[in-house]
Design brief:
heterodimer; A: mainly alpha; MetI-like fold; 2 domains; B: mainly alpha; 13 helices; globular
């Protein structure tokens, strides 16, 4: 009894210490990810600032996105940074507010995709046998289906769909590729000794999958998430551009749709089209940069930047030394 | 042989899934699906045609499995009935007129994008850490992230509308009669340049990226070190040793991209008013012509499966290990 009375504080101390260690481990990992990696820094900067700007839209933009503030198709000026739309609304305010929904849809769809891909991929890879066979035949069939045309037809059948439905249909159609990659990685890890030892120790299947296998797949899972966000961002814009989305909701896609239906380019109001287009391109490009740097974690051979420069310098010095001797 | 048969069985299964999907979709629509489906045809079609039409699409009285078999039969006999927007033209006739344009545009643009992508990717990976390597993938990632419709509209605005270098719409000069003559072919080429460029711009980034990653993996192999030790020129190592091996996964990746290329065609053909499958799909979306829409999807699925099968054969030819 006396012993058990002593234990709780000791245990708490160990746990808090352990928490500190884990935090330190993650912080060092993050620091190592960014050190000497301009691609990752630039990608994070672009993605981060666009997210913050969309979140702070009501603070940054003075005008309401739905309010008429000027005459139609006014060019960019000091008052209206990105000009006005055909119906006299502030493009700057619209692009900030639209980012909120567009980015939520992109990340939401990517999150859904990632969850399905991880569930299917790990189950197929870890359990093998019949489970693997069934899951993989479904995955392979989904994989050969052309995603975007399928998405377009689905949206057309559902009528003008809102952002939530768009996120759900993108998420539920684009998980197959990720599931395949996660499966093959799981199979590679599955027969390692630490998994066998966990099985022998009698750990539950759920714990083996979540605690032993999943952390080893984290770079692939995160890479897949970022890659799918790019795809979802473009797919959403595409659906809405074709008029399949709900045109009353302001997103980057519906901005393109309105610009196109008002023939923005032809009447010379290029800003109406270019601003949301560039917003998507910059966000997608930023995500692509992040994706490249995450790829370098799952496949260290791809590393560039500072490492290559150091290596090159040392090689040059070595050659110079040899030439001297 | 076993490999090919297994793949063929798989593609057959995939086609049946696609047909079943097309069958289920209208039945999942809220309300009365048949009336919703033909709402836009009301007034255009005489009632008896409509009734015959519904029967062909499987909307017969009776249990669902019976409807399903009626539908499968009409698809397999390639008898998809008349379109709604261009009534009474048959869906299959409309499709047949549009397919060559899109196959030409999508096929050629994919070949060009793969070719350029492989060259830039090879070059970038061989100059790791230098300017080309850091600039090219980044630049093309941003270009590729631009919505294809916006890229196409921008090109349309600049080269067709402002500079007047290229025609504004159609696949060929509508005043000319289709014939195998130089004037007609040159007109097709002239009209095809801008859509082609727009499609290539959207696709290049992915190929550079794939090729670069594949190259870097190959460049770490021992036989590359061996080739360097033999004193071969770096150009020869780059092309004959590294690129030869890195190309395999990249080329077979083409089949995965066909779906995206077809989706790109929807936007680009719409912008340039190009008479292909993409524009047809867009128009059928606009006029809620569900039979045409579904036929387009089915055709795209078939294209993707054919591309996959070609990729399988290519793999078999390029990788002798699969032959046993």
């Amino acid at each position: 009894m006396t012993e058990s009375a002593h234990q709780p504080p000791a245990l708490a101390a160990v746990q808090s210490n352990r928490f500190g260690l884990v935090m330190k481990k993650y912080l060092t990992a993050i620091a190592r990810f960014y050190r000497g990696n301009p691609t990752a820094i630039m990608g994070t900067f672009i993605v981060g600032s666009l997210i913050i700007m969309s979140l702070a839209a009501p603070l940054i933009a003075q005008n309401e996105p739905t309010k008429r503030v000027a005459r139609g198709h006014q060019p960019p000026s000091m008052e209206l940074l990105f000009g006005s739309t055909r119906s006299g609304k502030d493009v700057f305010s619209q692009v900030l507010h639209g980012g909120r929904i567009s980015l939520t849809v992109a990340f939401g769809a990517a999150a859904l995709t990632t969850v399905i891909a991880v569930l299917v991929g790990i189950s197929a890879g870890y359990f093998g046998g019949k489970v693997d066979e069934i899951l993989m035949s479904v995955t392979n069939i989904v994989l050969v289906f052309p995603q975007l045309p399928l998405l377009i037809i689905l949206a057309a059948f559902l009528g003008q769909v809102g952002p939530l439905i768009i996120a759900v249909i993108i998420g539920s159609t684009s998980w197959a590729w990720g599931a395949r990659i996660i499966r093959s990685q799981t199979m590679a890890i599955r027969n390692k000794e630490f998994i066998t030892s966990a099985e022998v120790m009698g750990e539950s299947k759920a714990r083996i999958v979540l605690v032993e296998i999943l952390p080893n797949l984290i770079s692939i899972v995160v890479g897949g998430f970022v890659g799918t966000s790019i795809y979802a961002l473009m797919a959403e814009a595409g659906l809405e551009f074709l008029g399949l989305g709900d045109p009353t909701v302001i997103t980057w896609g519906t901005m393109l749709y309105w610009a196109q239906s008002n023939s923005a380019f032809i009447v010379g109001a290029w800003w109406d089209m270019v601003v949301p287009g560039m917003a998507i391109a910059i966000m997608g490009g930023g995500l692509a940069l992040l994706n490249m740097s995450i790829d370098q974690i799952s496949n260290p051979k791809l590393k560039t930047g500072a490492y290559i420069k150091i290596w090159r310098k040392q090689k040059a010095q070595m050659i110079a030394r040899r030439a001297r001797s | 042989m076993g490999f090919i048969l297994r793949r063929l069985a798989f593609y057959l299964a995939a086609i049946f899934v696609a047909i079943s999907f097309n069958f289920i979709m209208p039945r999942l629509m809220p309300g009365n699906p048949v009336d919703a489906l033909f709402a836009s045809a009301m007034g255009k079609m005489p009632p008896e045609t409509l009734a015959a039409y519904k029967e062909m699409l499987g909307f017969v009285d009776g249990p669902l499995w019976k409807q399903y078999f009626v539908y499968i039969k009409s698809v397999l006999t390639w008898d998809l009935g008349p379109t709604i927007m261009l009534y009474p033209v048959q869906v299959t006739d409309v499709l047949a007129a549009k397919v060559p344009w899109t196959v030409g545009l999508a096929g050629l643009s994919t070949l060009i994008a793969v070719f350029i992508g492989i060259i830039i990717g090879t070059y970038a990976s061989y100059n790791r850490g230098k300017f080309v390597d850091s600039f090219m993938p980044t630049f093309w990632a941003f270009v590729g992230a631009m919505p294809q419709a916006v890229t196409a509209l921008f090109i349309f605005f600049l080269f067709a509308l402002t500079l007047r270098w290229f025609p504004l719409s159609y696949g060929a000069n509508p005043d000319l009669d289709p014939a195998f003559s130089w004037t007609y072919i040159s007109s097709i080429l002239h009209h095809g340049v801008l859509p082609l460029v727009s499609m290539v711009l959207g696709g290049i980034g992915a190929w550079i990226f794939n090729m670069r990653n594949a190259m870097i993996n190959v460049l770490g192999e021992d036989f590359i070190t061996m080739a360097k030790a033999k004193g071969l020129s770096s150009r020869r190592i780059m092309t004959h040793y590294a690129a030869r091996n890195a190309i395999l996964p990249v080329v077979t990746g083409i089949s995965m991209q066909i779906g995206f290329v077809m989706a790109g065609a929807i936007f680009i053909e719409t912008v340039f008013n190009y008479p292909g499958l993409g524009l047809l799909m867009f128009k059928s979306l606009e006029s809620r012509d569900y039979p045409t829409m579904q036929a387009c999807l089915l055709l795209i699925v078939v294209f993707v499966l054919i591309a996959n099968f070609i990729a399988d054969l290519l793999y078999l030819w390029l990788d002798p290990r699969l032959r046993n």
